[in-house]
Amino acid sequence: MNAQTPATALVIEHEPSREVTPLTLLSQALSSGADPATLREFMQLQREYKRDQAKAAFDNAIAAAKAEIPVIIKNRVVDFTSTKGRTHYAHEDLAGIARTVDPILSRHGLSYRFRTSAEINQPVTVTCILSHRDGHSEENTLPGARDDSGNKNSLQQIGSTLTYLQRYTLKAALGLAASSDDDGRAGGDDMGAINAEQVAELRSLIVRAAPDLPKFLDNFGVDDLADLPVLRLSEAKMILNMKIKADEKKARAKEETA
Predict the structure, then answer these.
(1) Predicted local distance difference test score (pLDDT) of residue 184
(2) Which of 88, 85, 82, 231 has the alpha carbon at shortest distance from 147?
(3) Measuring CA to CA, how many Å separate 244 from each of 14, 204, 209, 241, 248?
């Protein structure tokens, strides 16, 4: 074979029982004195092959792990009374989730970590990164407002929200069912749905922003504004304010060109 033979035309001699992969083709190309362009093509094929194999291994590991993960037991109860009324609900804490899922994930070569952001005047954001030992990883991100319930100082507000978001991003990353979760839903809890005053504030912004309301609600997975989680209130307000500013900018530009 001459040095100018393209990668697609290489003829590989191999044992019938041996799997032909881009790596075996690359080895054959090297021994056959292939040109640099052909080698680069095989190297790219090998990288894509490894990514596909790693993704398949990740998917198989997730499926096997989920088959073993039991129902997470709610091991914490929140019960207090504030000016908004009584708050009472049960939930599973992050440590409880970890005790249940960590040994199972480890057996299947899976692990997770969190990336966080808490910039001034911005929602707290947590990203759960779920990885497999073969190299593939996937991310799940959730923003939320600082938890200003009770008498928390600014750092405690951030810490409370981080813990809350870590639990939910991990559960989402693993695909754990949350349909029966009453975490933060009862008694007007500040970590549940928004209150009537916050609903009114959003409705005022919606009147000004005039978004596609069904699409806007669908983005947050709710059918009504009253069901919006308080941890996503800042995100909703930010989206509406951005649309208002964009519309105002367009209006000014139109006036200037008129």
Answers:
(1) 43
(2) 231
(3) 65, 12, 5, 5, 6
Nearest to 133 by CA among 52, 58, 53, 49: 58
DSSP string, 158-227: HHHHHHHHHHHHHHHHHT---TT--TTTGGG-TTSB--HHHHHHHHHHHHHH---HHHHHHHTT-SSGGG
pTM: 0.55
Whether the CB-CB separation of 171 and 98 falls below 8 Å is answered with: no
List the chain domain ranges.
7-64, 69-176, 194-258
**Contact, 69 vs 100, CB < 8 A?**
yes
For 75, the 3-state DSSP assignment is: coil
Q: Is 145 helix (H, G, I), strand (E, B) or coil?
A: coil
Q: Please give the span between the terminal C-alpha atoms of the chain, in angstroms, as a whole number.
A: 70
Count of beta carbons in the 10 Å neighbourhood of residue 225: 20
Residues of the chain with pLDDT under 50: 1-17, 178-191
